[in-house]
Amino acid sequence: MLKTYENTSIAPQKLPSWFKQPLPDMSKIREMQGILRERRLYTVCESAHCPNMGKCWGQGVATFMILGETCTRACRFCAIEAGKPAEVDPSEPYHVALSVKQLNLRYVVVTSVARDDLADEGAAQFVQTIQEIRRLMPQTKIEILIPDFSNKLESLKMVIAAKPQVISHNIETVKRLSPTVRPQAGYQRSLDVLKNLKDLSEGIFTKSSIMLGLGETEAEVLETMADLRSVGCDILTVGQYLSPSQMKRHLKVERFITPEEFTRYKDQGMRMGFKHVMSGPLVRSSYLAEEGYEGCHK
User: Fold this and answer.
1) CATH code at position 246
2) Does 62 fall in a domain?
């Protein structure tokens, strides 16, 4: 059984030595925050408490989160607030594109909260954001990280037609743990989404991500990797789960995976046929995303 925090008085778990990182460039972080706040934009870097925010923002790279900052789902691993979302902001795609231009990004990732309250679950906002970025920054390559859209084919077709370079959807964990880790999603549904993306698209790379440290076995991780390859997934990221808070909702870390184990998963993934595998304790689905895209062309 997966463990949760029963109250907020428990001391957080101490991180192993391999999580140490150099201090980030605070001036660059403040610059990024100023641009984002001015345009009323959100990043998954901040909302999901990503441990790489300092490194990525120090390089002028961010993952934009559209459709607000409140999610209609309450996954047990996620720091993003769950509840009733605000109305969709029609100016948001333009402001994202303007920020991409101001930051002169050559590669951008756009993700979103889940929006089960919308008929298309947010697909149209992704399309408009891609179109606005292409209008203002035609040379910028675009990766989108989508929720499952409940596997609605029309929503998937909409984002495919906009032709981002990469479409990512995260399976997050192994089959056995999926009902507890993300009770409003589904392991098989995520595989079906990735299969449909690959079947319906031409020339678009697909990507997914797995978190480790929730009590999964090595055999289960390898099974999940094999399942992802069976639906044509091109790019895989594997990282360490870190509990975002001590709230009862959030799952505890069962085990810290060693860097050597992550290296082994990378090697096994490449042998399975993934075009690119990024695997390490601090790896997240959008971490150094451009490397994954470039790796598909080697």
Assistant:
1) 3.20.20.70
2) yes
- SS3 state at 206: strand
Task: Give the residue among 215, 287, 281 at the shortest CA–CA distance from 242.
Answer: 281
What are the structure tokens assigned to 78, written together?
């996620």
**Cα–Cα distance measured from residue 174 to residue 154, given in angstroms and rounded to the nearest whole number:** 27
- Looking at the domain assignment, is residue 18 inside a domain? no
Its domain, for residue 31, covers 25-295
Burial class (CB in 10 A: 0-12, 13-18, 19+), 273: exposed
| 3-state DSSP percent of the chain in helix, strand and coil, to 5 | 40, 15, 45
Q: Answer for the pair 67, 123: CB distance below 8 angstroms, yes or no.
A: no
Other beta carbons within 10 Å of 139? 8
Residue 1 lies in a domain: no
Does residue 132 fall inside a structural domain? yes
Could you report the per-residue pLDDT of 45-59, keeping only the tens digit for each?
554 455 555 555 555
What are the beta bridge partners of residue 236? 208, 277
**Residues 43 and 63 sit within 8 Å (Cβ to Cβ):** yes
Q: What is the pTM of this model?
A: 0.86
Tokens matching residue 15: 């991180």
Write out pLDDT tens, residues 246-287. 667 778 899 999 999 999 999 999 999 999 999 999 898 887
Contact 292, 235 (CB under 8 A): yes
**pLDDT tens-digit series, residues 68-113:** 888 998 787 677 788 999 999 999 999 999 988 988 888 999 999 9
Counting the structural domains of the chain, the total is 1
Residue with the two structure tokens 């929730």: 214
